[in-house]
Structure formats: C-alpha cells, structure tokens
Amino acid sequence: MYLSRILPALALAMYAAASPAKSSTSQPRALVYRGQSACKGCSEAVARLLEKSPQKFAVTYVGRDEEDQISAELLSQAAVYAQPGGP
C-alpha cells in the first residue's frame, strides 16, 4: 500500500528529470506537497528519494501549512512537482 502511494510521485520525478529546470546553483528544484491530502510520512519519503537521486534535487515543501505555497511562479522554477498520497 505504501509503495503504491510513493511510486507514482517517483515516476513523475524521474520523468521530469529528463529535462530539469535548473536553479541558480545548477541543482534542479523539486516541490513536494506536504499537507492533509498526503499520507503520513509520504512527503518526507518522496523528498528523500529526490534528494538522493542522481539529479540531487533541492527539495522545497509546499502546502497550506508550509512557508511556500503552490503558485504558477514557483512551479515555473521547478523541474518536479510531487504530491504523494492517494486513496
């Protein structure tokens, strides 16, 4: 069950890594949703996978209770957006 929630986000991350948007530090940026619709611990697991991937994503958590909120501007600066969770 746990993997069925993580794998779609990981697949999206690997697909997006093919043409990542680069930040000023040349490290691709990943936005990971952390909030009520994400399963417990899933956001952190996806973030760790992205950080340890060959692309070494710089992860920023986004969501209602996070410092950063999802916006068109923020999404345009990211190579990956992952929203872990599901039924």
TrEMBL record:
Sorted UniProt keywords: Signal
Signal peptide per UniProt: 1-18
Taxonomic superkingdom: Eukaryota
Name recorded for this polypeptide: Copper chaperone
Species name: Claviceps pazoutovae
